[in-house]
Design brief:
The protein has 130 residues and is an alpha+beta fold. It has one domain (7-117). It is built from 3 helices and 3 strands, in the order E-E-E-H-H-H. It has helices spanning 49-60, 64-73, 81-117, and strands spanning 9-17, 20-27, 33-37. A 3-stranded antiparallel sheet has the order 1-2-3, with no helix packed on it. Strand 2 (20-27) and strand 3 form a beta hairpin. It starts with 8 loop residues before the first strand and ends in a 13-residue tail after the last helix. Residues 4-130 form the Mutator-like transposase domain. InterPro entries: Mutator_transp_dom. This is Mutator-like transposase domain-containing protein. Pfam families: Mutator.
Length: 130
């Protein structure tokens, strides 16, 4: 309505959430406050930076303290301990569910292979050679 653009915006504040930030800008013309996110919050198919950081820590065998120390060397804010633990717990459930699903699929595949090859016991139950 007023022909405002980003050049009319003035930085107000930043909210830091681990490795993500939200910047608040206020228009000097119409006083509208806009948010600028450091990553796309609407993309559900991508992994957030915070989740990726915690997942990487689990993969290489380090914890919150080492992540925070590493981030401090880079001079960037890190996750709080409680946020790290919350994300770690959520990821553990996702990984566990995924592992069980993959094991179920592998079992079904082994069953089909056993049936196809005739590897069944006297009751007709498929057997897997180990």
């Amino acid at each position: 309505a007023f022909g405002c653009s980003f050049t009319d915006m003035e930085y107000q504040s930043e909210i830091i959430k681990g490795f993500q930030s939200v910047f608040y800008f206020k228009c000097k013309v119409c006083n509208i406050v806009e948010k600028l996110y450091t990553e796309n919050i609407n993309k559900t198919e991508t992994v957030t930076t915070n989740n990726a950081a915690v997942n990487a820590c689990q993969a290489i065998g380090i914890g919150h303290t080492q992540l925070s120390e590493f981030a401090s060397f880079l001079d960037i804010p890190s996750l709080s301990c409680s946020s790290f633990i919350k994300i770690q717990s959520t990821l553990a459930n996702i990984i566990s569910d995924s592992a069980w699903e993959e094991m179920r699929k592998a079992g079904e595949e082994e069953k089909e292979l056993a049936l196809k090859c005739g590897d069944v016991d006297t009751d007709g139950i498929p057997m897997c050679t180990v």
